[in-house]
Amino acid sequence: MFHSYPHIYLSPHYDDASLSCGGAIHLQAQAGQAVLVVTICAAPPPSGEPLSPFAQSLHRTWGNPADVIATREAEDRASLAILGADYLRLNFNDFRAPLISAGEQTGSSVSQRSSLQRSSRLRQLDPG
Predict the structure, then answer these.
(1) What is the pLDDT of residues 37-50, one digit of tens each?
(2) What confidence category does residue 127 fall into, taking pLDDT thresholds of 50, 70 and 90?
(3) What is the enclosing helix (H) or strand (E) of 75?
(4) Which of 19, 51, 110, 119 lies in the 20 to 30 Å Cα band around 65?
């Protein structure tokens, strides 16, 4: 069934839209406007891959639930129900940046990379 949504929020992870835009989502839904939240990184991590130290610290903070993804998805579903929004889950994993040794991040190479990245972004913004 096709449904038209005048308001679509892109949420990188579970709860991001609820926590950052919850007030606007609620007001729009209360005004009778359809709201859709699209969670981009909703796929479970690849099995057998070790968690990053940051992910491990989050799991400890959350009390190491047996199924972190199911727990976060249920929390997100509940918050969106309270706000009055529909949701769509995309099957992408969260991006993991490759580890770079400290030696690769020193000296002019970092400065040159930063300049190149800034100028590339500026060219993308300037159509002329």
Answers:
(1) 999 999 887 777 77
(2) very low
(3) helix 68-83
(4) 19
